[in-house]
């Protein structure tokens, strides 16, 4: 039987969350920082772009119509990363993740045969993350979405160990999707905050997970890296060399960094068939999943066509198109 076509990188917009945080001083400060990092030209384009796409991110009928046009059977829906709000205090953070989990569940419940959901956890409060993950799973969500870091915390922080343990034990999917880049105003022109910043953040976050030994201690984690894992998969040779040549680089993980790429899942959203071919070569065809970044302008309006452009063997094409994700999500 042919597997469904599954897009693992699709977003939902949750106005309830933005209403919750509106007017909070810390939220205003975070918005100002985001504006500086992106630059005025990017904000002038992004505002209208997002507004035009609100129906596809909030209305299930509009979402399904778009999915049909793309030939996508199932989406794994995650909250817009703009909802992370890692600036929030403990009380606000708990309200945010509960609202995100419940609202995403309600959205997906309108088309349960075609939509699966991911929730949020407060990465800035490591001691709340297990409870937040359990709340998401209790709602029937497949797992949670996280960014590449939170203020004062890299993903290698030992404070996250209980979260990784619980995620592995529960078989939860973790979708690593950066939001913002700490290179700040260096990327405030020409939308470099996204085109350079997002791949850089992916590479940094994955390197923290690999070099710190997180993936040694939790080999069963179901981790999906957005944007094809950024720069890391195509430049993993430099990591391997450092691991072999330097005692400080090789101290934290047991194996060559490149070997860990076959323990991570990656979406296919790299915008270049040659890069997609390289990703499949280093990670394996069984570790790449179709992703579109629906419905944003930096995504793909034809993810299946983009995948076809890589000219993969038929078995690999079918695996990436949906077979791998169907197995991961345990779709009937």
TrEMBL record:
Q: Which UniProt keywords apply?
A: Lyase
Keyword field contains Ligase: no
Any idea where the Amidohydrolase-related domain is?
Answer: 6-331
Highest rank taxon of the organism:
Bacteria
Q: Where is the signal peptide?
A: none
Note the InterPro entries from the entry.
ACMSD, Amidohydro-rel, Metal_Hydrolase
Q: What is the lineage of its organism?
A: Bacteria, Bacillati, Actinomycetota, Actinomycetes, Kitasatosporales
Q: Does the UniProt entry include the keyword Lyase? A: yes
Q: What is this protein called?
A: Amidohydrolase family protein
Q: Which organism is it from?
A: Streptomyces laculatispora
For this protein, the record's Gene3D superfamilies field holds:
Metal-dependent hydrolases
